[in-house]
Design brief:
Blueprint lengths: L7 E3 L2 E3 L6 E5 L6 E6 L3 H20 L2 H17 L1 H11 L4 H18 L2 H4 L3 E9 L11 E11 L2 E5 L7 H12 L3 E5 L6 H12 L7 E3 L4 H9 L3 E7 L2 H13 L3 E5 L4 E5 L5 H13 L9 E7 L2 H14 L19 H17 L2 E4 L16 E4 L6 H4 L6 E7 L2 H9 L3 E2 L1 E5 L3 H10 L4 E4 L15 E2 L2 E2 L6 H7 L1 E9 L2
Parallel strand pairs: 7-8, 7-10, 8-9, 10-11, 12-13, 12-18, 13-16, 15-16, 18-19
Antiparallel strand pairs: 1-2, 3-4, 5-6, 6-22, 11-21, 14-15, 17-20
The structure holds nicotinamide-adenine-dinucleotide (NAD).
Length: about 500
């Protein structure tokens, strides 16, 4: 690692502007420095918007079929570089190798979906919507008809602000669809692990995107606010915490921007007594501890209904005790470190909070056997959690599972719906009746049945509800294409 501050990528070229403050990022498994990211280079943000603005005219006039050829090439390039990108994720994020490879693959899925832009942005026509006899030269034929049609056109310069937890995948929710629709883009990746986003943006230029179509500027809140408030920015797509998302939504709306904010979560999974035991334990284990719990789809609360807890809790505890924690690239590692020292401190705090609130600490991640260096915390299970506890309500974003108990499905759904978040909820059962009740009454945008992490494939929208989302149109699916285009209606008469 050099001690140089990372460069931005503007108009296809490295752009040097370290700003006045920087953040030093470490490999969370070793503590070794991996990058230094500029935090407040607002002049670079201006330069990135100017480059995107200059590229918008010609790019928006490029036929959509030609635009997506770049994405087809880009997909192939990312597949060729998948191992390199995965190794980078292990180093700067701490994911396991398998999680890293999986997240690159999920990013590529989004590019494939964006290649459907010709179909997703197609317009509609209604001929002969009215008849007019004024100015008519052929009155004997009943007047001249009026046709109407609607199509979708790009917005202009769009901005993406992304979180640390999926630095390859989440940017792919945004810019491939945005540019396929004819927009140009400025990506502001997380300042905590910016190398992966920088590398994937460099690779976009190898795919032949014209300079200025996709730009990247590093930074923290000062850069985000500069981009949001910029007169030449039309739309803002954000993924991150609820605290930042709510602020960005308000600021972007106050500046007249189109905005979508995919935000934080506290996801509940319900285990019914009749559930397939192996599938339930396996599903919850992966959901709670996968990506070290740093997923907006992490199943961080389990509600055992009736006597389900009697078989579920001991089996989950046994499985979790055997979980191997270590560096993401060490053989056999099932769970890596948290991404940075602040995350480790927060998670340790929450374990203490749960204990102080009276939860039973069945497995204590503070005393797990983990490597001494780095940001490791072992998996943690808190039992007998009640709805009023902070560990039942607040997003911990780490490998801490809260277990609750309910007398009935209705009571369990009540626990789920009391949450201020509504990203996803899951039920494990064999009963169609229970599933139907769950699907019809639970308040969350992404639901799973006998599936631990119901992450939608790119053809479906990523549909958080309540404080897990601010806006109207979600990311991906048809929503993605609609978010990055505006509609235009034409009424035509030939005289
Ligand atoms: P974060 O909110 O701290 O940061 C996200 C982005 O916002 C970063 O680029 C950061 O620079 C910027 N930012 C942070 N605070 C800001 C502020 N006050 N003003 C302007 N910009 C600001 O989130 P994080 O810690 O990087 O990521 C974890 C969070 O993201 C979790 O809450 C997780 O649930 C959420 N997340 C949500 C989804 C989803 O689809 N709903 C997906 C992934 C992650």
């Amino acid at each position: 690692m050099s001690n140089e501050v990372l460069q931005h990528l503007i108009a296809g070229k490295p752009h040097d502007d370290p700003g006045t403050t920087q953040r030093t990022n470490i490999d969370p498994a070793t503590g070794e420095t991996v990058s230094i990211a500029p935090l407040d280079a607002v002049a670079a943000a201006d330069a990135a918007v100017a480059a995107a603005r200059a590229a918008f005219g010609p790019w928006s006039q490029t036929p959509v079929g030609d635009r997506i050829q770049h994405l087809f090439r880009y997909k192939a390039i990312l597949e060729e570089h998948a191992d390199e990108l995965a190794a980078g994720l292990v180093k700067e994020h701490g994911k396991t190798h398998a999680e890293s490879v999986g997240s690159v693959r999920r990013g590529i899925d989004c590019i494939e979906h964006a290649c459907a832009a010709p179909v997703l942005t197609m317009g509609r026509t209604l001929p002969q919507i009215a008849v007019s006899s004024s100015f008519c030269r052929t009155e004997d034929e009943g007047g001249v008809g009026i046709d109407s049609s609607a199509d979708r056109v790009p917005l202009g310069v769009c901005v993406g602000i992304t979180p640390f937890n999926f630095p390859v995948m989440v940017p792919m929710w945004m810019w491939p669809m945005a540019v396929a629709c004819g927009n140009t883009f400025v990506l502001k990746p997380s300042e905590k692990d910016p190398i992966s986003a920088l590398r994937t943006t460099e690779l976009a230029h190898e795919a032949g995107f014209p300079p200025g179509v996709i730009n990247l500027v590093h930074g923290g809140a000062p850069v985000v606010n500069r981009l949001i408030e910029h007169d030449d920015v039309a739309a803002v797509s954000f993924v991150g915490s609820t605290r930042a998302g709510a602020a960005i939504y308000a600021n972007a709306a106050a500046h007249g921007k189109r905005v979508q904010c995919m935000a934080g979560a506290k996801n509940f999974s319900i285990i019914m007594p009749d559930a397939n035991r192996e599938a339930a334990v396996d599903g919850i284990f992966g959901s709670a501890f996968g990506n070290t719990g740093q997923r907006c789809l992490a199943g961080s609360v389990v509600v055992c209904v009736g006597d389900a807890g009697e078989w579920f809790v001991p089996a989950l505890v046994e499985r979790t005790r055997a979980l191997k924690v270590g560096a993401g690239d060490a053989p056999g590692t099932e769970m890596g470190p948290l991404q940075d020292p602040e995350s480790k401190a927060r998670v340790l705090d929450y374990i203490g909070i749960g204990e102080a609130e009276g939860a039973d600490l069945l497995i204590d991640g503070r005393s797990a056997e983990v490597p001494a260096a780095g940001c490791f915390v072992g998996p943690t299970i808190l039992d007998r959690v009640t709805p009023s506890m902070r560990v039942a309500q607040e997003e911990i974003f780490g490998p801490v599972l809260s277990v609750m108990h309910a007398g009935s499905l209705e009571e369990a759904i009540g626990f789920v719906n009391a949450s201020e978040y509504g990203n996803m909820s899951v039920i494990f059962t064999d009963s169609g009746h229970a599933v139907r009740k769950f699907e019809r009454t639970v308040e969350a945008g992404m639901l799973g049945v006998n599936v631990g992490v119901p992450a939608p494939m790119a053809a479906f929208p990523f549909s958080g509800w309540k404080k897990s989302f601010f806006g109207d149109l979600h990311a991906n699916g048809e929503d993605g294409a609609r978010f990055f285009t505006k509609s235009r209606v034409m009424v035509r008469r030939w005289i």
